[in-house]
Specification:
By secondary structure, the protein is α/β, with parallel strands linked by helices. It contains 14 helices and 14 strands.
Length: 372
């Protein structure tokens, strides 16, 4: 009798996490459902040699899967993702269609299949550019064992499953300047392979509404004091306010660049340096206004025993997300930050285009006109 050994409590989620790592390393994965299969390749590491190998496999049947945001930048008015045929896996054409500033669509665009949508979701989970090459494979084709096979259904279910599996894996006192009585609580789960942190300041009374801020990590602003955003100011102001009020919880969420990841955030910064606002820059890379999810933030609060909050935020979406997840947002207050010449366009775009509750400093240009 042959014994099958499995040390994973969830082989499906384990496979998706391995697929995320494969895609981030530039290697293709095999995505399949009950009826179809496709070899999926991210575009960031598509060298001419690699493209030639894929071209031989595709035999003219490859396709480029692009999100609606990028198709809009290519000259289409489109609210749904789409597919462009690739008679040849040409890395220069693919790069142009995926992220070149002045590119325009050069072929018909058709609708996506469920596998195409799952392939884009896998790219988002990997924090890669949201564009993939997909090569349909017949069931008769043998695939090398080094290519990971991923059930499409597991990709679809992954985010919700990670929220359900959220757990505390460590906690310890970490005195902060101005808030010496502080505890860091580390959670595993939520988004991708990243840990999340709750910074518990003082002694919040969970029998009453707790002052809470959901703060998405910003390496450039939080750590280095970037003048291009107000994130570092919001972080430190919130911690100081909680300490002065006797307690609160700041959820430090690993969702850099509104969920796009640090590499894509820096790509967007490059576009912003050329005159595009934060949302247009993200759209040029294929991202919508905000890729973040806050369902796992609600789960973190639940694990801390917090069900009612006084929320510190400028973002109405956070209020709505927590409310939908069953957290009672009793009140909310704005989170102030500095207005600088470098972040004025960024703050004005957030206020005017997406309704963030931002009051710019008196006399700033953003109070007199909309951002371009």
């Amino acid at each position: 009798m042959r014994l099958t050994l499995s040390l994973s409590d969830s082989p499906e989620r384990t496979t998706v996490e391995r697929a995320i790592a494969e895609l981030r390393m530039g290697r293709p994965v095999l995505l399949d459902d009950a009826a179809n299969a496709a070899l999926v390749q991210g575009i960031e590491d598509l060298t001419p040699d690699h493209a030639a190998k894929l071209d031989a496999i595709a035999a003219g049947g490859a396709r480029l899967v692009l999100p609606a945001a990028r198709l809009n930048r290519l000259g289409l008015e489109r609210s749904e993702n789409g597919v462009v045929a690739l008679p040849r896996v040409d890395p220069e054409r693919i790069a142009s269609l995926a992220f070149a500033i002045d590119a325009r669509i050069d072929a018909p665009v058709r609708g996506t299949s469920s596998l195409d949508e799952d392939a884009l979701e896998l790219a988002r989970l990997a924090l890669a550019l949201p564009a993939v090459v997909a090569i349909p494979l017949g069931r008769s084709i043998e695939v090398d064992h080094s290519v990971l096979r991923v059930p499409a259904a597991s990709v679809r279910a992954y985010r919700a499953a990670r929220v359900r599996d959220l757990k505390i894996v460590g906690r310890a006192p970490v005195p902060l300047e101005g808030a010496p009585e502080t505890e860091f609580v580390v959670f595993r789960g939520g988004e991708g392979l990243r840990d999340q942190i709750a910074v518990v300041i003082g002694r919040p009374d969970i029998a009453e509404p707790v002052t809470v801020r959901l703060h998405s990590a910003c390496l450039t602003g939080d750590l280095f004091g970037s003048l291009k955003c107000d994130c570092g100011d919001q972080l430190r102001t919130s911690v100081r306010f909680m300490a002065e009020q006797g307690g609160g919880v700041l959820l430090y969420l690993d969702q850099e660049g509104r969920g796009n990841g640090i590499a894509n955030k820096i790509r967007a910064y490059k576009l912003q340096s050329q005159g595009y606002d934060t949302y247009d820059a993200d759209e040029m890379l294929g991202f919508g206004p905000d890729q973040r999810r806050f369902d796992f933030a609600a789960a973190m609060l639940d694990l801390l025993g917090i069900r009612r909050v006084n929320l510190i935020t400028n973002n109405p979406d956070k209020i709505e997300a927590l409310t939908k997840a069953g957290i009672d947002v009793v009140t909310h207050r704005r989170s102030p930050g500095r207005t600088t010449p470098e972040n004025l366009l960024y703050l004005t775009a957030k206020r005017d285009r997406f309704g963030h509750l931002i009051e710019l400093e008196p006399g700033s240009a953003g109070n007199r006109s909309r951002a371009d």
